[in-house]
Amino acid sequence: MPVIAFVLVRTVPGTSHELIASRKIKGVKMAHSVFGRYDAVLVLAAKDLEELSKTIYEVVEKHPNVVHTETLIAMPYPPREVKQPLEKPHTVISFHCPSCHHLVEQGSTICPFCGYVFQ
Ligand SMILES: [Zn+2]
Questions:
Q1: Beta strand pairing status for 66-73 and 94-96?
Q2: What mean pLDDT comes out for the span 48-57?
Q3: Is the CB of residue 28 less than 8 Å from the CB of residue 42?
Q4: What backbone phi and psi angles, to 5 degrees, belong to 105?
Q5: Is the pLDDT of residue 42 over 90?
Q6: pLDDT at position 80
Q7: pLDDT tens for each residue of 4-22
Q8: Comparing 29 with 83, which gets the higher pLDDT?
Q9: How many A from CA of 108 to the centre of ligand 1?
Q10: How far is the CA of 105 from the centre of ligand 1 (A)?
Q11: Domain architecture of the chain: domains with CATH
Q12: How remote is the CA of residue 116 from the centroid of ligand 1, in Å?
């Protein structure tokens, strides 16, 4: 399962561009200096978590001007489907609007078709 990670990095002021140069490294898909609480954001892609941590080490951890990092690992997409037992056919209890005779779901207080207010 391929892994994508967003690495938020805080660097020593004025050095985030050094980190951006790492976009040449294999596994680094994007690298940008950013405004905000972090100085740079990197997008990494790896074939698994092991490779990802190697890339993070290569790019970030051993970088002398990195002060702080936060790594956000993307959820696999699409999310793995949870097998549901076949849904039982369910009956929606409904009644006819006395005004327009449309079928209206039980418990409605107002007819969605004509606006008739049920007592
Ligand atoms: Zn109606």
A1: unpaired
A2: 90
A3: yes
A4: -65, 140
A5: yes
A6: 65
A7: 999 999 999 999 888 888 7
A8: 29
A9: 11
A10: 11
A11: 3-73 (3.30.70.920), 89-119 (no CATH)
A12: 5
The answer to whether 43 and 4 have CB atoms below 8 angstroms apart is: yes
Rounded-to-integer distance, Cα 86 and Cα 4, Å:
33
Q: How many helices (H) and strands (E) does the chain have?
A: 2, 6
Ligand 1: centre distance to CA 106 (Å):
13
Six-digit token string for 66: 């990195």
Task: State in Å: Cα 93 to ligand 1 middle.
Answer: 16
Confidence category of residue 90, pLDDT binned at 50, 70, 90: low
CA of 96 from ligand 1 middle (Å) equals 8
